[in-house]
Fold this protein.
Amino acid sequence: MSSTGYRAPPVQCPTEEQIATISKDLQLNLTTQDVADVKVLLGGVLKSYQRVDELVEPLPETKYPRVPGYRPAAKDNPLNAWYWRCDISGAADGILAGKKVAIKDNVAVSGVPMMNGSKILEGYVPEYDATVVTRILDAGGRIIGKSVCEDLCLSGSSFTCHKGPVHNPHDPTRSAGGSSGGSAALVAAGEVDMAIGGDQGGSIRLPACWCGVVGLKPTYGLVPYTGAIPIEISLDHLGPLARNVADCARLLQAIAGPDGLDSRHMLACPAGACFDEAIAGPGGFDRRQNQRGAYFDQLTADVHTKKVAIVMEGFANAESDVMQKVKDATAALAKSGITVDEVSIPEHADGVHIFQPVIEGAYETMIRGNGNGFGWNGFYSSSLQEALARGYKTHSQDMSATNKYMSVLGEYMRTHYNHIYYAKAQNLRRVLSAAYDEKLKHYDALIMPTIPFVAHKLPAENISFKGSAETTSRKSLA
């Protein structure tokens, strides 16, 4: 492209004073002449940034027409589970035809506001559809809104969203769980047939449990995360919630499989092996022809050859009524012909301790990395990155207590311990996974409570910083 005149540079060349400050911060000991030389060198390098700024980046497709929608009035949103209402129809037929779907508000729907539960991002409107959104519409689903999620999705409860708490449909005084509380509450209340949730540390499973619906955190990389706001690349999952297993399987079938834009799938499933083996089924699978894959078909499979095991360590500190519910469920499985045993996995007790350092990655990706981070192949949303960066500069004080104390922890462990415990915990994840995998060589499933206690009461308005942080994090991980 030829230049026709002056063009404002997208990146200003740093001054010598700025270069000297950076040199001091990084302990580079640049001399005055070195600083001047760096300034000249950077002037040449920044021409590449000028060219990149001129180029048009590719975006995920927006296939189906829609209007922006609206923020519902309180009288039309009794559980405060809707963040935004819209009405987007997809294909005329498909496995999700006739199904109403809610999308968690950390997942992009083109032209529809997305705030990820946080003042940080309020006002942002993505210009692309997440892969799961396109696939739901391709499968005949109808998206009727965005569901409320927790502040930056970093909470196991349902009261940190900037727009207020999500109420449990079974008892409005109690938590719906988080961070996908809006999705679970809308499904449980019958306002939608199914919903998309996200899960890094229980955020699909916990609200599904407390709202009494079916929620699935899929195998890592099975469902593309493209177009959703990352928290920690090695922990990010999207998955289905529904009122019954059949609809959960339908939604999973519609959204699963590689899209070529999410490195999580590439990391988990080399050469697409997971997709080919997991859902190809007899005769293969072609989403474009809306053929039913293995997930839905297997619901009618013979269960008499199946074996499951109760993990005894999963009941530590469990309330008595929670223990009884799980025992009743396993008794029902045994009555249906499934073999039920008990096993011990001692490593399970260390799971929460291994998770805590790994979540340092959320600080690097979500806060310092402005929602994208670095070093992975796939789609990076530059508009989201810009919006988050501006939001952190102007509204960090408005973050939830959990996000504030996690930011302090992340920065402290970075500057004082160089994230070495993050690295060690990531290595220990393999040991933990191997312990479960060893049991799964002999059993089709492992059983334990989703969370060992019932939904807690939503806190009072004057809850302390400490109380808020504990309620949304440590307690939910107990």
Q: What stands out?
A: The CA atoms of residues 41 and 270 lie 40 Å apart. The chain has a mean pLDDT of 92. The longest strand covers residues 82-89. The two ends are 59 Å apart (CA to CA).
